[in-house]
Fold this protein.
Amino acid sequence: MKDERLRGKTAVVTGGRQGIGRAIALAFARAGADLVIVDIVFDDGKLDALAEEIKKIGRKCLSLQADISSKTQVEKMVKLAVKRFRKIDILVNCAGVWLPGQTLLECPEGNWDRVIDVNLKGTYLCCQAVGRVMAESKSGNIINMSSQVGLNPGTGAGAYSISKAGIIMLTRQLALELAGYNIRVNALAPGIVKTDFNRNIWDSPQAARQLSLEVPLGRLAEPEDIARAALFLASEESGYITGAVIPVDGGWQVSTKPRRE
Ligand SMILES: NC(=O)c1ccc[n+]([C@@H]2O[C@H](COP(=O)([O-])OP(=O)(O)OC[C@H]3O[C@@H](n4cnc5c(N)ncnc54)[C@H](O)[C@@H]3O)[C@@H](O)[C@H]2O)c1
């Protein structure tokens, strides 16, 4: 049966070039949404290749280069999206960075600034600029990307876990502020997902096996696991859910086994 859950909707996905953002953009397109895919990296051709894939599914797609930590670039991105599609129904804040292996005692100020600027401030800037558009149309749906280490600290997570915890409170605060505009705001908190983001920690079969032992469901996540949860939050199936943070972590939060990021 054809999936029509997002028929007629326009979705903006940041960090759409690869990994989780890419899987979400494709899942949304297959459910009938038109897409605006955004990334800071444009010149490797991956964003345009994804746009072509989305068009082959039969949906419209606009690909844009923007650094989400820049207010000017975010506002320009939103202007172009609205010019093309006249509205934004769904925003997925997926762009993010992780600078691995740093304790907070070691973390240089520049790394702290970069992680907080992209992950937390960037999510805020996109929520603000798109939220204003959604507020005008009295309807919208925002999905933010936290992490399992936004709920619990993780070895080597450093400033990253703090940025992801900030995203949780940003989500809850916005859910409260925007409910009156009929805008829902929720977050996903994925476990370890097999993407380029953290390839260094899961790439060898031995490392993947070891990490899987920490996950009650016994495997690491694929980007599509997160995309299915995002699709649920984007659709009317979750119509009475706002301000929620949904772990998509194979049970990592409830495990008592030794942990690391
Ligand atoms: N992979 C995991 O294990 C995992 C776990 C929990 C949460 N997450 C979160 O999920 C999101 C996506 O992660 P992923 O694994 O797909 O990573 P990824 O590195 O594969 O993709 C992230 C994308 O974001 C883009 N990006 C980075 N900085 C940007 C900026 N300033 N402006 C615009 N785009 C920017 C990158 O170019 C990249 O294409 C991130 O927010 C990450 O923190 C990932």
The two ends are 39 Å apart (CA to CA). The first helix runs from residue 19 to 30. The chain has one domain: 10-254.
